[in-house]
Amino acid sequence: MQLRRVRIAGTGKYLPERKVTDEELDIRLNMPAGWVSKATGVGVRHYASGQETSSFMGARAAEAALADAGLQFADIDCLVCTSGTKEQPLPSTAVFIQLAMGEQESGIPAFDMDATCLSFLNGLDVMSYMVDAGRYRRVLLVATEIASAGLNWSDKESAALFGDGAAAVIIERSEEEQSSRIVHASLKTYSRGARFSEIAGGGTRLHASNYMADQPEPYLFHMDGQAIFRMASRLLPGFLDDMLKTSGNRMEDFKLVIPHQGSAMAMRLIRKKLNIPEDRFMDITRNHGNTIAASIPMGLHEAIRQQRIRRGDRVLLIGTAAGLSLGGLIFDY
Q1: pLDDT tens for each residue of 220-247
Q2: What's the CATH number for 6-173?
Q3: Is the domain covering 181-332 a CATH 3.40.47.10 domain?
Q4: Of the candidates 270, 249, 245, 250, which has an alpha carbon nearest to the alpha carbon of residue 259?
Q5: Active site residue 117
Q6: In the chain, fewer beta carbons within 10 Å around the N or the C end?
Q7: pLDDT tens sequence across 155-184
Q8: Catalytic residue among 117, 122, 184, 301
Q9: Where are the domains of the chain?
Q10: Do 6-173 and 181-332 share a fold?
C-alpha cells in the first residue's frame, strides 16, 4: 500500500513575457504558412529572454505558490528543483532558485531531482514520503525549463514544439479530517529508447570543452519523435492497466487526467489509447507548448485555477519522458 497523507497546499506558475506564435515560427523555419500549427498543434509558446533565467522563473513561480498557500519562505523545510534542464552543470538549479528568492542565508536544503519530462512527477512521489514520515513539514517543488536555449532549428518539428516556463507546488502533511492524499505512483524505464530523446554533449562523455561552433549538433536537443510515438503507444496501455489494477482504480474514478503536454500528437495518443473522455482530460498544449517537466505542474495549476478539480477529487498525472520512461501518480486533491 502506497497511501501517503500529503496534500497540495498551493501552486504557482510563471511564463516568460515573450510570446512566439506558430506564424512566427513558420517564417523562422522557412515553412509554408500553417505548417507549424498542423505539425505541433501549439498556437503560442513562450521564450525566455534577458533576465529570465531558469532560477528567476522558478523563483517567481515559487513565490506565487507561497502566496497561494498563504505561506512565507520560512514555512518551507526543503526546496527541490524538479527539472529536465539545468541552469548550469553545478551547483544545482535549486541553489540558484533559493538565491533568486533572496533567501541565501536561510539554510533551507536545496537540491535537484531529474527524470527529464517526468521530473516533477518523480519529485512529488519521492518527497511525499519524506513529508508523510515527518522528515519535512513542507516541501517546495519547482519545475523550471528553458527549452528554447538548446533547440536544433534544423530539426523543424521538435524546434517548433517546445516552450519555456516554470511551475511550483507546495506539499504538506494533510490532517486526519482532510481527504487529500497520494494514493499510488509508478515509474518504469525502458532504456532501449535512451537515444530517442537526448542532448548528448555537455557532460563528462562529450565535455563542453570539445564544443565546435561548426558542429554544434551533439550539444543541441535531438528527438526521434516517430520512435518515441511507436514505443509509447505500445507500452502505455499496459502501464496504465497495471497502475489501475494495483491501486484498485478505474478510469471513471478520476475527475481529471493531467498528462505531460508532449505534443498534440501525444495528447491524441494518450486520449485514444487510454480511452479518456475529453471533459476529463487537461490539455494546455495550445498556449504553452511542451515545457518539459514544468508541463504537468502547469496543467495542475491551471486545473485548480479553472476549478476543474476541487478538494477530494481523484486525479491522475501521467506521461512519458526521455529514457524512455513512463510515469503515473494518483492522488486525491
Answers
A1: 999 998 899 899 999 999 999 999 999 9
A2: 3.40.47.10
A3: yes
A4: 270
A5: yes
A6: N
A7: 998 999 999 999 999 999 999 899 999 999
A8: 117
A9: 6-173, 181-332
A10: yes
